[in-house]
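Encode chain A's predicted structure.
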Amino acid sequence: METVSGPDGETLYVDPTAGKRGQKGPFFVVYTDDGATNRWGFLCGNCDTLDNAVDSMGRIQCNHCSNRTKAEEWDAAHE
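Encoded structure for chain A:
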């Protein structure tokens, strides 16, 4: 696991092997502990920021570079 500094200065742990594919780069899963038991959020692999948003459809969007994923679930009603 790699470490990054969180918004409040806490140490967070990035799993470079677990993530989701984005349009500009991957989103890596971030944990609060090195045992990967407490999930914190995502790190944008395109611009290395932790400032990302996740919506109810499971899409992740970076608030800095607009990197984003597609929805995990798809329903024709959302068209």
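Residues 2-72 form one domain.
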